[in-house]
């Protein structure tokens, strides 16, 4: 989950001939993001965005899993309201959550025009004149809506090739006035459908864990929603940078909508597998916290986005995590999943503690899982 910066992360790319902080500040002050660099005719990736070689391993799609025939599972949810077919959907979700932690769902109930509407609105936002969108540019986390490029710009080792919009959906009625006109219908409409889908997935995943369908709902682990949308402009030198660095999400669950321009990859069986866009599909990503409460039954998984010459890529992510009143309460491996053969693999922790560690260690944003920090038993 690339939504908040890590204050402790040190800046490593500064040196006597290169003032990284100055370049970052100048870039930030344009309020025009990476899209602004492209619009100004920039034909080279600025140094601020150039990643160290260890981040750029296996970038070519030729070495990604497409060559090995690995394919992210696609699960048809059509049958999930039918008591006979529901079992099959639950089994498919269970297998995909145990093996990949990452799968596409179709016939999930969100109308295509609602999905297209939100993707198009995001694209239009970024493609309007710089002065207009610049008014929304902010790093103030208290804002319900903001536009920025690289939440960790001032302390990451290298910036990534994308611009971002963030919508916060706390409890209660969302504040329509807080977002640009473009989003007042589209994003709120999408959010309504996402809320329903979340309810279905919460029940189906509870059943997949062998629990009552209301279990995950009752423990209120997915009551907060953050919609984050990334716009990845075309990139003149994609071999030097990344759209999103490899990471796993700190959430319980992430729901991801993407347009037809690919670039997303997931790590499976030690290789990067291209996630080909499937029209009408929503991607479901198991987050670190779901792995923790499921006691390693479900797997959170590393993923990343390549910078590409083709584009722009637009993604709309819905991050799901505990609501305000539950954020600081402890969660641990679900008791019903434990017995003498299945001891708890993790200690209890709150989402606030977990996410704080994810950010402060810098690990979450550096491609290293932070789950091991909370582990108390070694995997079998
Ligand atoms: C994220 C993420 C992927 C994408 O923001 O956590 O994985 O397609 N984004 O933008
Ligand atoms: Ni992610």
From TrEMBL:
<dbReference type="InterPro" id="IPR044861">
    <property type="entry name" value="IPNS-like_FE2OG_OXY"/>
</dbReference>
<keyword id="KW-0560">Oxidoreductase</keyword>
<dbReference type="InterPro" id="IPR026992">
    <property type="entry name" value="DIOX_N"/>
</dbReference>
<dbReference type="InterPro" id="IPR027443">
    <property type="entry name" value="IPNS-like_sf"/>
</dbReference>
<dbReference type="Pfam" id="PF03171">
    <property type="entry name" value="2OG-FeII_Oxy"/>
</dbReference>
<feature type="domain" description="Fe2OG dioxygenase">
    <location>
        <begin position="221"/>
        <end position="322"/>
    </location>
</feature>
<dbReference type="Pfam" id="PF14226">
    <property type="entry name" value="DIOX_N"/>
</dbReference>
<comment type="similarity">
    <text>Belongs to the iron/ascorbate-dependent oxidoreductase family.</text>
</comment>
<protein>
    <recommendedName>
        <fullName>Fe2OG dioxygenase domain-containing protein</fullName>
    </recommendedName>
</protein>
<keyword id="KW-0408">Iron</keyword>
<dbReference type="GO" id="GO:0046872">
    <property type="term" value="F:metal ion binding"/>
</dbReference>
<dbReference type="GO" id="GO:0051213">
    <property type="term" value="F:dioxygenase activity"/>
</dbReference>
<dbReference type="InterPro" id="IPR005123">
    <property type="entry name" value="Oxoglu/Fe-dep_dioxygenase_dom"/>
</dbReference>
<keyword id="KW-0479">Metal-binding</keyword>
């Amino acid at each position: 989950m690339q939504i908040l910066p890590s204050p402790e992360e040190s800046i490593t790319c500064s040196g006597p001939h290169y003032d990284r902080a100055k370049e970052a500040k100048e870039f930030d002050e344009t309020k025009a993001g990476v899209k602004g660099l492209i619009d100004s005719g920039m034909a080279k990736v600025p140094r601020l965005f150039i990643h160290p070689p260890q981040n750029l391993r296996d970038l070519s799609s030729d070495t990604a899993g497409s060559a090995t025939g690995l394919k992210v599972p696609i699960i048809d949810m059509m049958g999930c309201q039918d008591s006979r077919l529901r079992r099959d959907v639950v089994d498919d979700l269970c297998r995909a959550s145990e093996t990949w932690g990452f799968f596409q769902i179709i016939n999930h109930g969100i109308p295509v025009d609602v999905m297209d509407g939100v993707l198009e609105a995001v694209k239009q936002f970024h493609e309007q004149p710089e002065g207009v969108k610049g008014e929304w540019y902010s790093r103030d986390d208290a804002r319900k809506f903001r536009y920025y490029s690289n939440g960790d710009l001032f302390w990451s080792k290298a910036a990534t090739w994308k611009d971002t919009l963030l919508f916060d959906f706390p409890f209660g009625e969302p504040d329509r006035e807080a977002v640009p006109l473009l989003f007042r219908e589209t994003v709120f409409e999408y959010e309504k459908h996402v809320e329903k889908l979340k309810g279905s997935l919460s029940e189906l995943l509870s059943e997949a864990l062998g629990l009552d369908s209301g279990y995950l709902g009752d423990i209120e682990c997915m009551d907060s929603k953050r919609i984050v949308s990334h716009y990845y402009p075309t990139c003149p030198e994609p071999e030097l940078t990344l759209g999103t660095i490899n990471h796993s999400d700190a959430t319980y669950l992430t729901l991801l909508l993407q347009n037809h321009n690919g670039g997303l990859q997931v790590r499976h069986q030690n290789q990067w597998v291209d996630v080909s866009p499937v029209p009408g599909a929503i991607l479901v990503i198991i987050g670190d916290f779901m792995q923790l409460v499921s006691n390693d039954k479900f797997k959170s998984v590393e993923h990343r986005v390549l910078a590409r010459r083709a584009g722009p890529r637009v993604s709309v992510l819905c991050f799901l995590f505990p609501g305000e009143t539950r954020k600081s309460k402890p969660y641990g491996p679900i008791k019903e999943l434990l017995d003498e053969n299945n001891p708890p693999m993790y200690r209890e922790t709150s989402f606030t503690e977990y996410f704080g560690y994810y950010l402060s260690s810098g690990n979450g944003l550096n491609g290293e899982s932070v789950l091991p920090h909370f582990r108390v038993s070694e995997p079998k």
